[in-house]
Amino acid sequence: MNRPAGGTRVRVPCLLWNDSAVGIAREVFGDALPVAEQYAEFLSGPGVERGLIGPREVDRLWERHLINCAVVAEAIPAAASVVDIGSGAGLPGLVLAIVRPDLDITLLEPLLRRTTFLDEAVGMLKLGNVTVLRGRAEEHAGKLTVDVATARAVAPLERLAGWALPLLRPGGELLALKGERAAAELAEAGPVLDRFGVRSTELLQVGRGKVDPPTTLVRVVAGARAPRRAPGSRKRSS
After folding, report:
1. 40-50 residue pLDDT tens
2. Model pTM greater than 0.90?
3. According to the annotation, is 168 in a ligand binding site?
4. To pair with 228 at 20 to 30 A between CA atoms, which of 20, 63, 71, 143?
C-alpha cells in the first residue's frame, strides 16, 4: 500500500509499476485482473514468507510468472479438464484457473505446506473450478484421467512424461513449460515417449507480443499406451 500525506490508504495494483505491464496484464487477464492482483499480493507476501517463491522474484512477478503462465491458456481447448503436476505455489495451474474459468483444474502437489497455501489461495480467490489434491502423479495413475497435464520447473521431460502420460486420456496433451533446453529435452525423452506410444510431439511458443521471450511449451499428445518392444524388434508396417 502507498500512504499519501493525508493518511488515507490507496490501493496500488501489486507490482504493476509501468504502463506496459498494466496494459499487457489487462489484455491477458481481462475482467479477471482484480483476482490476479489478489493472487499476486498473496504470492509476494505469504508466498515469499513460506518459501514458495523467492524474494528476488517479487520484482518480476507479473512478467516472469503470472503473465508467462497465463498465456499457456492459448494452447488449452475449451472446457478441458487439467491437472497441474507439482503445482507448488500454483504456477501455472492457479493462474490458468483465474484466466480460464471454463477449465476444470486439479492442482496436484505432494508437500503439505504447499497444498495448505494452495487451499488458502483458492478459498481467498473464490475459485470454484479448482481442486487441490495432495500426492504424487504416479500415485494417481488409473484414478485421475484428464484432457491436459501442465507442469513448470518440475523435472526433465523424460521423467515428467512418465508421470504425466498415465494421467491423460488417449489424445490428451502434456503441456510442459520449458526454457532454452526444450528441444534437447524433447530429444532426450524420445525413448520414454516411444514406450508410451505417443501420437505426436512439438515445440510451441505462446504469448508472442505479451512476454519476451515467448513462453516455450513442449506438447506431447498421448496415444493408447504401447507395450515395450524387445531390443531389435520392429514395428509392423500396415
Report:
1. 999 999 999 99
2. no
3. no
4. 143
